[in-house]
Amino acid sequence: MSAPAAEGGGKNSLHPLRPEERLIVALDVPTPDEARGLIRALRPTVCFYKIGLELLYGGGLALVEEIAADGAHVFIDAKLLDIDNTVEKATANIARLGATFLTIHGQDRKTLDAANRGRGSSQLKLLAITVLTNLDSNDVREQGIAMEPDNLVLQRAGLAVQSGVDGVVASGHEARRIRQRFPDLTIVTPGIRPEGAELNDQTRVMTPGRAMDAGADYLVVGRPITRASDPRRAADAIIAEIATAL
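Structure (tokenized):
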């Protein structure tokens, strides 16, 4: 299966994604066996999965290859940030696993450029993390940054464009401004919560329909699906909302 990356940004794509291809389910569980159980429960509705730090450090790297070999897509949410040489070599190793997306922190060009070199001619697509969706203005100020989160997101999206990476990870609250200023960037939006769902540890959240209207290409959804009594039904409902927004 080829990578379902939107060409030229979601709604202006020459090859528009189907609604079900735009949903990425976060496998935020501690073990591969639990992740496999979720994947079985979500078949055939879901075709794209995110593996983050919790699962990566619990045996998730082997699971990346397993999911890819089964024909689904994998988003490795590693959030790489280190010296140039380390990021480049880590990206090169990750590129061999068959994943579709990899995240690196988008706070500086050295990190982004190193990841670009590391992926080489592989099909791996790189996403720059802008500002995490659990952070607000106070959190950004604690980091010594005298910018509001939405402006910081735009500044880092600009770095992503300059470096030539494929897209960004940003909340739905910033998606519209990113789409307007950088129309060719792929926008992957976490912090998605259906109407009435608990916020948990998220701060800058948005419903699936509103995020799509704002310009997101892909939505990352975890607990509202994975902790639902019927995960597949929950996923179907979100895909239906994506379809309506499109």
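The radius of gyration is 17 Å. The chain has one domain: 10-245.
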